[in-house]
Amino acid sequence: MVVGRGGMLKPIPGGTYAVSDDLLHDLEIGKQGQHASNLGGILAREIGDSIGVPSYIVDPVVVDELEDISRVSGVPELPRTSVFHALNQKAVAKRYAKEIGKPYNSLNLVVVHMGGGVSVGAHKEGRVIDIFNALDGDGAFSPERAGAVPSGALIKMCFSGKYTEAEVYKKICGNGGFNAYLGTNDMRDVDRMVEEGNKDAALYRDAFIRQVAKDIGSQACVLEGKVEQIIVTGGIAYDKYVVDGLKKACEWIAPFTVYPGEDELLALVQGGLRVINGEEQAMVY
Fold first, then answer.
1. Engineered SS bond to 271: which of 16, 57, 173, 266, CB 3.0-4.6 Å?
2. pTM to 2 decimals?
3. Range of the domain at 281
4. For 236-256, how does the pLDDT look when each residue is reduced to its tens digit (9 = 90+)?
5. CATH number of the domain that 182 lies in?
């Protein structure tokens, strides 16, 4: 078995998927856009075919388990969509469940991934029923992405004649967030700036914490306050100042568990093993 990361496919429930011809085609064309993660399934299929073994992907970024109510945006032509760090979010949620000896599908969790992008999800009994789009949608800004921005001002920017469509998109996704404010996408650089007395860096770091905390509170409301744990993961989870700030703002909601970094390679292995061991059936795309 060869397992690769999933990419920008059509919206699908979480799970481990065989890389079928249809799935491969949608990765090649970028069904929902071009992203480096599209290569994962393509490479898995190529390697698997070359050595005569099946190929799979696990929990791609387009995992969609949203409740219908979570899709409503206020503009019928612009529904809210599910694009997030599904592989790592699911992996740490299942890791926590295993550590406390309870099934993942029996828990209500808020999971926060903080890396180049930020995603905050409401995990209700094994399904991510609400999420902030981590790529180009909404929620907190991040090292590289703008998150939610004032829509009226964005419309004026788009029609100002100063920018192409590609340039505006790059402001939202790639050159947004800390990149736009401080010229770096590395939280360690931000911390150094603060230590050197940069007041702007201190402001933007605190603003980041507040925005992520607001997202946590929002998802706690989605779960009607019945949150058993807040799980924080991703590279920025190594940052004590950020994690302590989130705890100060949100620990009244539920206790925190912190899993710094990403468990994505391990998550791919575990997804494949669940199929091999008969714990799960491979999903059909």
1. 16
2. 0.89
3. 1-62+264-285
4. 999 999 999 999 999 999 999
5. 3.30.420.40
Is 7 a domain residue?
yes
Q: Report if residue 259 sits inside a domain.
A: no
113-155 pLDDT tens trace = 999 999 999 999 999 999 998 888 789 999 999 999 999 999 9
pLDDT greater than 90 at residue 35? no
pLDDT in tens, 15-29: 999 999 999 999 999
Pairing of strands 118-124, 127-131: antiparallel
In terms of domains, do 20 and 87 share one? no
Residue position matching structure tokens 């399904």: 127
- In degrees and rounded to multiples of 5, residue 18 shows phi and psi of -70, 140
Q: Write the DSSP assignment of 221-279 as a string of letters.
A: HHTTT--SEEEEEEGGGG-HHHHHHHHHHHTTTS-EEEEEB--HHHHHHHHHHHHHTTS
Contact 81/137 with Cβ under 8 angstroms?
A: yes
Burial class (CB within 10 angstroms; exposed 0-12, middle 13-18, buried 19+) of 145: buried
Indicate whether 178 and 117 sit together in one domain. Answer: yes
User: What is the chain's length?
Assistant: 285
Residue 112 has pLDDT above 80, yes or no: yes
CA distances from 97 to 51, 57, 114, 243 (A): 35, 22, 20, 21
- Same domain, yes or no: 71 and 136: yes
On whether both 52 and 71 belong to a single domain, the answer is no
3-state secondary structure of 36: coil
245 and 277 co-located in one domain: no
Residues in Cβ contact with 267 at an 8 Å cutoff, skipping those fewer than 6 apart: 58, 59, 87, 88, 90, 91
Q: What's the number of domains the chain is made of?
A: 2
Residue 192 tokens read as: 């150094």
Same domain, 190 and 221: yes
